[in-house]
From TrEMBL:
This is Tc1-like transposase DDE domain-containing protein. It comes from Parasitella parasitica. InterPro entries: RNaseH_sf, Tc1-like_DDE_dom. Residues 5-50 form the Tc1-like transposase DDE domain. The lineage of its organism: Eukaryota, Fungi, Fungi incertae sedis, Mucoromycota, Mucoromycotina. Pfam families: DDE_3. GO terms for molecular function: nucleic acid binding.
Length: 132
């Protein structure tokens, strides 16, 4: 635990609604819900046993009309992808490099698809850290 840095992501959606509820006996469970059009966001975080290293908020892209992009390129994705995670880990490693006592620490991540890129493991090893 003393030489581990935990990295994870979490999604947050402000449009969640209750699927069930309680009501007095003999009455239907009806609730007025105020709806708001809000986009989902992703939160990326890195924490060790001693300190919060980095936290990042990934806001969704602004909506665009469905049109083909110039040159036949595909539209950008809305969610968190490997490139977002690579950029976040670069920021985490840069922050950890400021503290010599963190050299050789283990970066611990789950097996989400955004972590499986080879570039993440290579980048971590090149900076002198271990990746699990």
């Amino acid at each position: 635990m003393s030489n581990s840095v935990f990295i994870d992501e979490s999604g947050f959606n402000a449009n969640l609604r209750r699927a069930q509820g309680w009501a007095p006996k003999g009455e239907a469970a009806k609730v007025k819900v105020i709806t708001a059009r809000a986009n989902s966001i992703s939160i990326l975080g890195a924490i060790s046993a001693k300190v919060l290293i980095k936290i990042s908020l990934k806001k969704p892209m602004s909506p665009s009309k469905k049109r083909k992009l110039a040159g036949g390129r595909k539209q950008q994705t809305k969610g968190t992808v490997t490139n977002h995670q690579v950029y976040f880990i670069k920021e985490v490693l840069a922050e950890m490099d400021k503290f010599p006592e963190m050299k050789g620490h283990y970066l611990i991540m789950d097996n989400a698809p955004i972590y499986t890129g080879k570039i993440i493991g290579e980048m971590t090893w090149e900076c002198g850290y271990n990746c699990i």
